[in-house]
Amino acid sequence: MKKSLVYGLVLFLAVSAAFAADFSPTPMRLNAPDRIFYAFDGSELQIPVNVTGTPGNAVFLVFTKGKAESISKVQNGYLGWHYVNKIDTCLYVSTFMDVSKGDNVFIWNGKDEDGNAAASDEYTYYIWAFDDKSPKLQVTSQVGFPWETRAIIKTHDENGAVLARPIIYDSPVKSVESMITEKSTTTRNKWTIGSDPEDVGMRETCAYMSWIENGSISFDPSDHSMFFVQALHPEQRKHYTWKMQWVPNGDAVLQTDWAENGESIMDSPSRIAYHSGPISDGGDYLLCTSGDLFGEGLEANVVFLSVEDGTVARKLDVSNWWVDLNDKDAGGQASGGPSDLDFKHGRIIISSHSSCLDQVLDPYIDDDEEATLWVNQNGDLTGDHNFEDNAARPWVCNDYNVGPYKYSNAFDDNLFSTFPSFDMGAVSFGLYAPDGTGLGYHAFAGETANFKAGERYVDVGSPYDGMYMDNASAAENTAGWWYVGHDSVKGTITNQVGV
């Protein structure tokens, strides 16, 4: 009898193991020439691109190259929607086209968007693509992707080496509308991408005490066992940033030798504030936003905290973009944030679910005005608020009563950025080019008009490269993190022969 029981148990475990499967996606890869010659003679230039992994939908763009210093504070477009400064800009965008696995071709006739022939010169071209044909793959059901997530995917270790398997750190959400003045337990979850999506044993946790928290997590650049988080004390109108040691499946240890007994304190413009930070720049600073969505404060900043001692090293003032009393008079809000921040390759993108505005900055330019590289606001229908003919508050930007609700914004490796597009119908995300040119709304396979929270990228040449997102818009199986193939590449179109 005992032998039968043992045999049955072994058989059960074997069958269970057969059904368990680690997450193993098929990444989309684009392969295109680094340099391609064009005579600028009015002929059609064919740009070959080979696609492996999955088919999808793609767009081709042509940008100026090496002209950034000659571009100074240019604002144009309908309602002045597009502002660029010290950045190469887009002169041509193709229509989106389906690309199949194998060889594909994009064609450019050497002209800009207005039909004018481009000068004979060198240009940068981009191809951006994602898989809109295949259903999403579940990465994990054990870690959530909440609506105001500041979750991150860590792709490198403290030495700058690419991790064999990227790591998700989620973002706990405590209601910002409630006046939480007593600390309670906050738990961060850690998930190694590539694990069995259903294996609860692969989820790692770390707990600590906190107030209202919907911010990110970042790590000490020299020691990834140490992390930083931030929370708001609404009654005090203070943001607290703490440095702690991550204890796997235990309680974090406050590092009392950092800042003042382990915490750095700064003023908040509001009792009720969404916040983005802290995000590490990989060096000396922790970056976070300080703004208001509810009319209690008329300032907006990107704040630089010292990694070394927690002091405020700088406040980059963006109030002239994010505060608009005319919007308040027209029925919106005086301030729209910002409430979200992403950092990549020396660039910051800030955004908010309550504003039409998206802004990219170079945080290492000391002059606050010159630090803004591009701004996209109402006028091009990508990310716009109150653009409909029957809008109750025509073209009011700071308005949290209308979509798209841009809960988060994220860069890919070539500084294209996406935001969730809830309240815009059966689309998944809005897309910006590297200079802020709006590229419209796009849908994952099977998308509905239901809720969606955002995207994150793994874009480091790993087997897990792609877009990571929620699946809240689905009819069922909505929990956790999900995956879709994505890639972008760039190259040079040149008039030089034999280079």
Characterize the structure shown.
The protein is mainly beta. The N terminus is likely disordered. The strands form eight sheets. Strands 2, 4, 7, 8, 10 and 37 form a six-stranded mixed β-sheet that branches. Helices cover 5% and strands 38% of the residues.
Search tags:
37 strands; disordered N terminus; mainly beta; globular; six-stranded antiparallel beta sheet
Question: Which outline best applies?
Answer: globular
Poorly predicted ranges (pLDDT <50, ≥5 residues)? 1-18
Mean pLDDT: 91
> What is the structural class?
mainly beta
Number of strands: 37
* Distance, first to last CA: 79 Å
- How much of the polypeptide forms β-strand, as a percent range? 35-45%
Number of helices: 3
Give the % helix. Answer: under 10%
Largest sheet: 6 strands, mixed
What Rg do the Cα atoms give? 24 Å
Question: Nutshell version of this structure?
Answer:
The protein has 499 residues and is mainly beta. It has three helices and 37 strands.
Write the layout of secondary structure elements.
Elements lengths: L1 H18 L9 E3 L3 E3 L7 E8 L3 E9 L9 E3 L5 E3 L5 E4 L3 E3 L2 E7 L14 E8 L6 E4 L11 E5 L5 E8 L14 E9 L11 E7 L7 E3 L2 E11 L4 E8 L4 E2 L1 E2 L8 E5 L11 E2 L4 E6 L10 E6 L5 E6 L1 H4 L2 H5 L10 E5 L2 E5 L6 E4 L10 E5 L33 E2 L5 E4 L8 E4 L5 E5 L12 E4 L7 E4 L11 E4 L1 E9 L5
Parallel strand pairs: 2-37, 15-19
Antiparallel strand pairs: 1-3, 3-9, 4-7, 4-8, 4-10, 5-6, 6-29, 10-37, 11-36, 12-13, 13-14, 14-15, 16-17, 17-18, 18-20, 18-21, 22-23, 23-24, 24-25, 26-27, 27-28, 28-29, 30-31, 31-32, 32-33, 34-35, 35-36
